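User: C-alpha cells for this complex, please. No commentary.
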Amino acid sequence: MHNERLEFLGDSILNCVVASILYERFVTIDEGDLSRLRANLVKQQSLYEIAQKLELSQFLRLGEGELKSGGFRRPSILADTLEALLGAIFLDAGFNPARDVIRAFYIPILESVDPQTLGKDAKTLLQEFLQSKKISLPLYNVVATHGAAHSQEFEIECLVPKLGIQVYGRGGSRRAGEQAAAKLALEVAEQALVKTPAAGRKSKPRAAQLKLAGIATVQTTEAAVNPEPSPPPAKAANK
Amino acid sequence: MHNERLEFLGDSILNCVVASILYERFVTIDEGDLSRLRANLVKQQSLYEIAQKLELSQFLRLGEGELKSGGFRRPSILADTLEALLGAIFLDAGFNPARDVIRAFYIPILESVDPQTLGKDAKTLLQEFLQSKKISLPLYNVVATHGAAHSQEFEIECLVPKLGIQVYGRGGSRRAGEQAAAKLALEVAEQALVKTPAAGRKSKPRAAQLKLAGIATVQTTEAAVNPEPSPPPAKAANK
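Assistant:
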C-alpha cells in the first residue's frame, strides 16, 4: 500500500463534497452542526462501511504480511483504500464525476440519519433530551473502581431524580463509564416519557421505576465481556 | 456577519483545491508534508494576507459595534469573509470557477515558498539543519525565570557545542523561550556554515564565535518590548 498521497487528495475531495451535500440538504442547521455531521460521515468507521458495501476488499493487492494478518478486512486499510480511490477518480475524471460517486455513497446514508443526534455522545444526548423536557441535569457518581491501576474499570451511577432513574455504567475511564451510564439512562428516560401511549396523560412514575429496576441490570458490551460480579441493582424502585 | 454556513462551505472548497494544487505541484513530497503545507496555506493569517491584497475590507458591511471597534481590519473577520466569498462562488458558479479563483490566489504565493520548511517551527528547523550537517542535536536549558507566577517569562539557553553556539531566547512559556532561542541559533548556524564564501574551506570557528557574541544580544520581538535587563551575553567566544 503506497497510496498515501492519493488518500490525502481523496480525503480532501470527500470532505469538500460531503460539506456541500450537507449544506444543500440541511438548510437550517448551523455550521457547528454541519461540522459535527461531516466529521461523523467521513470517519474511518463510516468509510469502512461504504467500502464493505462496495466489496472493495476483493480488489486489494496486499503484501504477504498483510495478507496473512487479514489486512484486507482491517477497517483502516479499507477506509484508506476508499479515499485513495476517490483521489484517483478526481485525478482521472475531475471534480464532478468524483462528486457524483460520493453523492451516490451518501444519499442513502443520509436518508436514515437524524441530523440533530448523529455524532453526539450519550451524555450530550441525555442532557439535551432532559433540557427539552425541562428536567434538571443528570448527576454522575463514581460508585466503585475495579482492577489494578493499569487496567482499572470505573463503575458510574447516573441519576435523574425527577424521573426516578438510577442506572449504572462501566468503562475503562471515568468518562467511558459515564457515557455507558448516560446511554442507559437515555433509553430509560425515552421509554418513560416519549413512549407512554397517551401523550397527554401524566407519566406513570411507579411503572417507569419498576421498568428501571429491570433495565438497569442490562450491561454495556464492555462490561458484558468482563465476567465480574454485577453492579448493585437499581435502587430507584425501592425508594 | 451571518455567513458562518457559507464560511464552512468555502473552507471545505479551499482545503480541497489547495490539496489538489499541492498534489500536482510537489510530486515527490509525502502526505505528511502535504498536510503541513496545506495547514499553513489556509490558516487565518494566510487568508488575511490574501484578503488584504484583494482590499476586501472595503466591501464589508459590518454592524455598528464592529465598525467602532475597527472590525474591518481584524484578521479573523477578513479571513472568514474570504472563506464565505469562496463558498458563494462555489454555490453560484460551481467547482471549476471556485478552483480558478483559489489557484489565482495561491500560485504567486507558492512561487516564494520552500516546501521543506514552510510551517515548521524553529526547533524542528534547527534540528533538521544540524542533522543535515551531521552535527549532534542542540541542548536547551532554562537559565532563569522572571516575573510572578501568572506572567512568568522563561529565559532559555540553546547550545550547539560543535559550532560554539550559545544563544538565548525568551518567552512566556518554556516552549516559547526554546523556540525563540532555536530561531536565533539557526540564523547563527546558517551564517557560520552555509554563508561562508568558499564552500570547501573549513569554517572559521573563531570568527563564527565572535559573530555569535554580537548576534546573541539580538532580542526576539517578545523580549524587545519588555524593558528588563538584557540576558547575559553569549559566552561562546570566551570558552
